[in-house]
């Protein structure tokens, strides 16, 4: 009977390399989330107040 042995070598990544990779992905992702929040805030704000008065059709607001 043949005995199979597997030699698995564990290669560890550098913590600095992992941190740089997370920064490369995380900074643009955080910027995108921030932009989404800022631009969506206008959906939840109170609409601006109308200062001009609108007359009903057929009413005579112009002096004759």
How would you describe what is shown here?
The chain is mainly α and 64 residues long. It is built from 1 helix and no strands. The protein has one helix spanning 15-40. The radius of gyration is 33 Å and the shape is rod-shaped. The mean pLDDT is 84.
How many helices does DSSP assign? 1
Into which percentage range does the β-strand content fall?
under 5%
Count all strands and give the number: 0
Rg:
33 Å
Which stretches are poorly predicted, pLDDT < 50 over at least 5 residues? Answer: none
Name the quaternary structure: single chain
Largest sheet properties: none
**What string, H for helix and E for strand, traces the elements in order?**
H
Morphology call: rod-shaped
Instruction: Let me know the average pLDDT.
Output: 84
End-to-end Cα distance, whole Å, is: 114 Å
Instruction: Specify the helix fraction band.
Output: 40-55%
Give the helix/strand class: mainly alpha
């Amino acid at each position: 009977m043949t005995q199979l042995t597997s030699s698995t070598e564990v290669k560890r990544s550098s913590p600095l390399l992992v941190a740089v990779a997370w920064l490369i992905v995380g900074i643009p992702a955080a910027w995108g989330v921030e932009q989404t929040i800022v631009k969506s805030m206008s959906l939840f704000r109170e609409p601006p107040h109308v200062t001009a008065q609108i007359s009903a059709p057929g009413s005579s607001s112009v002096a004759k």
